[in-house]
Amino acid sequence: MQFRARRIGILTGGGDCPGLNAVIRAVTRAARDGYGATVFGIEDGFEGLVEGRMHELSSQAVSGIVGLGGTILGTSSKGDPAHYPVEVSPGKIEIRDLSYKALRNIEQWSIDVLVAIGGDGTMHNALRLSDAGVGVVGVPKTIDNDVPATEVTFGFDSATSVVCAAIDRLETTASSHHRVMVVEVMGRYAGWIALVGGMSSGADLILIPEIAFQWEHVYRKVHERQNQGKRFTIVCVAEGARLPEGDVVVRATDMRRTDSKRLGGVGERVAQCIEQATGYDTRVTVLGHLQRGGSPTVADRVLATRFGVAAAECACKGETGVMVALRDGSVRTVSLADATGPQRTVPPDDELVRAARATGISFGDA
Ligand code: F6P
Question: 158-187 burial, b if ≥16 CB within 10 A, otherwise e?
Fold first, then answer.
């Protein structure tokens, strides 16, 4: 007889982003109404899977959430079952492999297929569970847009819209005061947010992890604009951009996190250097979690819904060990092995980079 999943578990892992609830709604509706499956929401990502926290998702529970930011299930950046932080005594954390607990809960709950919505960390966890015999379907999310094997992740359009709107606002005050405005945006390893956010708002300099910048080129661009009578400059810098004299700027390290480094502070460093070297009044704005919060854009709601429906179909038909992805504009599936390949960073000769350069944007490298 053909496989039909009766019981589907769904979780959201890693940092949240706009569109997660639209996926949860789409998976639940498509699986319940289309296939008669029961859907269970696992709370707080892989933490809830290890700790045994879940509840059934009724159609009422997913009603009215397509445009709601965040995730109704909760999420966590600390719950990798294979590297799970356990407090062994007050303040003393030990990292342990608690995968067996995750597997045991899946079995006890009689979950046929797990739908894991998340970024690269989540896809690695999903692959490990899949290798251990669990039916898993991945759904790619992240504002950073760096998940391999998909052209785009939902959350990215919402985040870049926030960046664009913020820079539009900063530009009017920058031009009034004749200042340099440095805007630090998210993007740990990939500069897509800075690139698209900066291009869409007419930033003058974009500094990203993939293109090494030199101070002399940054200062020259600032002076150039001053000499042209423009008298203000907007610099959009990704949090993961490397300073010419060193590495990325790390705000804190937390071993409980799947990715232990908390980035932040590069904007401040860039602003200080520009002010010191050029003498121009410089200010810095860190957009931080504003980029992750709030309602998804239309594009993200639609992409998240398409991904959710496709994931429900895979789960219900037994196509597992895969991640749904956007390829050539269509929703397809790719293997979890492909989905856990090298991160999708900005190719330095990408057509977007060339378009940005052609319109006068400097990447601080020439
Ligand atoms: O990966 C998404 C992301 O928003 C990164 O751009 C950022 O570095 C990170 O999450 C921040 O994570 P947290 O909210 O856990 O500090």
Answer: bbbbbbbebbeebbeebeeeebbbbbbbbb
Choice from 253, 292, 343, 345 to test ligand 1 binding pocket (greatest atom count within 8 A of CB)? 292
Strands 38-42 and 7-12: parallel
Integer angstrom CA distances of residue 314 from 125, 250, 306: 19, 39, 12
**Residues lining ligand 1, Cβ inside 6 A:** 15, 77, 119, 142-144, 186-188, 239, 262-263, 292
Task: Report how far apart, in Å, the C-alpha atoms of 301 and of each of 25, 267, 314, 350, 354 are.
Answer: 11, 31, 20, 27, 29
**Ligand 1 atom at minimal distance to the Cα of residue 187:** 6
Compute the C-alpha angle 265/268/271, nearest 5°: 150
Q: Is the pTM of this model over 0.90?
A: yes
Q: Which amino acid is at 44?
A: D
Q: For residue 196, which of 304, 24, 346 has the smallest C-alpha distance?
A: 346
* Structure tokens belonging to residue 272: 């200080």
117 Cβ partners below 8 Å, 6+ apart? 10, 11, 12, 13, 20, 23, 24, 138, 139, 141
Nearest-10 crossing angle of helices 266-278, 215-227: 60
Tell which residue, 360, 365, 162, 194, has the closest CA to residue 267: 194
Chain position carrying tokens 């050539």: 328
Residues 90-121 pLDDT 10s: 989 999 999 999 999 999 999 999 999 999 99
- Average the pLDDT over 311-332 and give the result: 97
Compute the distance between CA of residue 106 and CA of residue 84 in angstroms, rounded to an integer.
17
DSSP characters over 318-342: T--SEEEEEETTEEEEEEHHHHTSS
**Which ligand 1 atom sits closest to the C-alpha of 146?**
1
Residue 120: strand, helix, or coil: helix
Closest by Cα among 288, 255, 304, 227 to 25? 304
Q: How many residues does the chain have?
A: 366
